[in-house]
Amino acid sequence: MLDEIDRRILEILAEDARILLKDLAQQVQLSSPSVSERLRRLEERGVIRSFTIDIDPRALGYVFQAIVRIRPLPGKLHIVEKLLREIPELVECDKVTGDDCFVARLHLRSMEQLDQILDRVAEQAETSTSVVKGQPVKRRLPPLV
User: Cβ distance 107 to 91 under 8 Å?
Assistant: First the structure.
């Protein structure tokens, strides 16, 4: 389990993964070596998987997002899964229960690009697509308690 200091470290890192170790230590009121040791243990336990950056897709020309529900045709599950891995605009994909097998999020530059991607997938699966209008809840940490 996490103690209060570990939770605070994770909250701070979620806001700014580039924070200097000395600044992180100061915010949690520990020494830098103590915080460094806690970070090492959190990584070893798999709590922290990586330190990363948050890029705004719009700044790179990806003007909209789409959510695509995907139901492979009979016998095509593994083919569809491989195909999805090869689509660079597909930034997230979950394998789910229910009527569909996959739910994917794509970042796209144009509607034509969406059509091209869906055409590739349609040979192997049925799809249902929704264009994202907004994101009232951004990706965030689950409760740390």
Answer: yes
Report the amino acid identity of residue 71: R
Q: Which domain holds residue 29?
A: 4-44
* Residue 71 buriedness (CB in 10 A; 0-12 / 13-18 / 19+): middle
pTM of the model: 0.83
Distances (CA, A) of 30 to 9, 21, 61, 115: 11, 11, 42, 53
The answer on 111 and 70 residing in a single domain is: yes
Q: Are 124 and 71 in contact (CB under 8 A)?
A: no
Tell me the per-residue pLDDT of 46-72, one tens digit each, with 9 for 90 and over: 999 998 888 999 999 999 999 999 999
